[in-house]
Amino acid sequence: MKIAVFGSGGVGGYFGARLAKAGADVHFIARGRHLGAIRQHGLGIESALGDVVLKPANATDDPAAIGPVDLAIVAVKLYDTDDAAKAMKPLVGAETTVMSLQNGVTANDTLEKAFGRAQLIGGSCSIATVIGRPGVVRHTGTMASMAFGEWDGRPTPRVEALRDTCRKAGIDATLSDDIEAVIWSKFIFLSAFSGICCTMRLPIGPIRKDPETRALLRRAMEEVLAIARRKGVKLADDLIERRMAFADGLPAEMYASMYHDLAAGKRLELKWLSGAVVEMGRALGVPTPAHESYWLALKLHADGRRT
Fold this sequence. Notes:
This protein is of the alpha/beta class. It has two domains: 2-177, Rossmann fold; 181-301, N-(1-d-carboxylethyl)-l-norvaline Dehydrogenase, domain 2. It has helices at 10-21, 32-41, 81-87, 107-115, 157-168, 179-200, 204-209, 211-230, 239-248, 257-263, 274-284, 289-298, and strands at residues 2-6, 25-29, 43-46, 52-54, 58-60, 71-74, 97-100, 120-133, 136-149, 172-175. Strands 1, 2, 3, 4, 5, 6, 7, 8, 9 and 10 form a ten-stranded mixed β-sheet that branches.
């Protein structure tokens, strides 16, 4: 399987390296110092699940040099989705499958406009990664799973082939019959955790331990659940309980990925997380006071300026 990873940072770099190490023909699209380090030293993964050094790694900043692929994985930050959809056109032929592993619930709309619904499958992942240094992805903890599927839930040959390719690489991959619900389930937790983590400047441990901040995390998730249900997404009645149990199982020192960007003075995905919750809530008549507080507390940091 010929695979292009557009956005080879934490998420794209990790899963792409695992797939390449197992024999898939993986091409990485990266930029800047990270690209330079990958070209010179290979792509490294530091993980409790096993370190990887992929050398040589097929890395470039020019999608046209790769040409059409079987699978194009989109793993850029949400604010880069529009530009990525334009830049990755040389990767997408008539038989190419496009899959986003991004955060949020809006990226697939952008990709659908660019490539059409038929070429798009839904994807989601659960993993904590950062670029530890140029050319090296650092994986925190042992959570590293992926779910994907057709929008109508059919087990088609292309998603079954991807599942088999992932499993050959040792990736915990699930073929979902309701990928929209999976994407929203992740968004419910991620938007709430990202907001409270960045506002408090604390990892999940103390947030879940303190009764009041724990309650705030829960309320923020309940706001997004109400929006999802208003939009007709089918989610389990006990979803919030399961998301809280998920939070309780995370490493106490784990921060949301958006916090690492905040701490480094980088641009934030805030507009597509709590910002999107607030916007959808207003449009649908769903109150979102917790996410409004996150939005107001963080919006002046969202473009990367330190204030």
